[in-house]
Amino acid sequence: MYDGYAMLALAPEITAPAQFPGMPRATPIGVQALEIIASILEDESPGLAEIKLHLRKCVAAYPGAPERALLAHLMETSQRVNAEGGEETP
């Protein structure tokens, strides 16, 4: 698990000390959300620039609440995928 400082070291592109100042009151779900956010932002797969930009905007929109930022990102991404036809389910 990562604390807020380790998270910022792993994903400097979201360096927002005002948003994550060491995560003094981080909930377990908040820490998990930070880990997921970091893994997405660290992914070097081609074609993720738009997704990463959207995720950064969500993080900025919910300062200090990474779980809410991740939820907002996932909900909008899901709506976009569903509007485009999405993936077929068995």
Give an account of the 3D structure.
The protein has one domain. It is 59% helix and 0% strand. The protein contains 4 helices and no strands. The protein has helices at 4-10, 28-42, 49-61, 66-83. The chain is globular and about 40 Å long.
| Largest sheet report | none
Give the termini distance in whole angstroms.
35 Å
Overall number of domains: 1
| Strand/helix succession | HHHH
Question: How many helical stretches?
Answer: 4
How many β-strands, per DSSP? 0
Mean pLDDT: 75
Overall shape: globular
Range of helix content: 55-70%
Weakly predicted, low-confidence segments: 1-5, 11-20
Annotation keywords:
about 90 residues; mainly alpha; about 60% helix; about 0% strand; disordered N terminus
Q: How do the strands and helices of this protein lay out in sequence?
A:
Elements: H1 4-10, H2 28-42, H3 49-61, H4 66-83
Helix pairs in contact: 2-4, 3-4
